[in-house]
Amino acid sequence: MVDILVVYKKNFEAVHDESLNQISTVLDEISKQRGLRVDIRARERVRRADFIGRDLVIVLGGDGTLTSISHNIDANTPVMGVNSHPRDDDEDGSFGFYMDSSIHTFADDIQAALDGKAIVNDLPRLQAIIDTTSGNRFTTDPAMNDLLIANTHQYAPSRYHLRRGEDKLVQHSSGLIFSTWLGKGAWLSHAANEQEYNHISDSIESDETDSHYFMLARDIPHSQRKDSPWASLAWTSETTTLTSDMHRGMIVPDGWDEVHFNRGATITVNLEAPRIRLLTFRQSMIQRLNTYQS
What we know:
The protein is α+β, with helices and mostly antiparallel strands. The chain is built from 6 helices and 19 strands.
């Protein structure tokens, strides 16, 4: 029996309730034919234990719904995103970059997923490892899109010692954004200097998208941009390490939970988090990104 967890967006809007009713009906029909065990949970009530031992996780909502609960999904569990409010139907709907399925295609897509005919996108995720001055170490949730490291007080500068390989910097900014290749459109491309961003993007090789990530120092002083070619914007596969000179800082993976740290903490950022197996049905995620960019 296939064990499926459905996580849905609950915000008391009728369109999401109707979408849930539609996919529930489809799953009930399939269960009569081939046997399914289906649990349905609202995003606000789901817990890590709900994801353990599942054969498939279905996320009904938009990109924010997927990224907010993806931290609970391990590297071996396939996940499919279903857009519950597509922008094609309503201009106020969800863009749904990660949601290749919709209520219109779900019946066919779930059959493809169960038959092993879906496209499996094995995607890297970012992580930050925090080493405190008292000797404790802990790791943030993995991020599909981006990690923000900044002062908890956004009106105060983020001060830190930055290191990558043999290069070292001492700088301040309004915070550092680390982004995966697929996550770059979520925040990075809007926050980066267009000229610098286009220069780096044009030089990226196709085989780097799985092993490299972006780092952007937001609102960095112009004088500090000259200190190093990667002071303000970088595309790298190397680990980035920073030591905080802020009284209190925070790390926010995918715009979700804040993890706080104090002055002197060392934060290590890399792409070594558990990966995520995202199912798509018409195009791979790289093809979807190229389609949206063209």
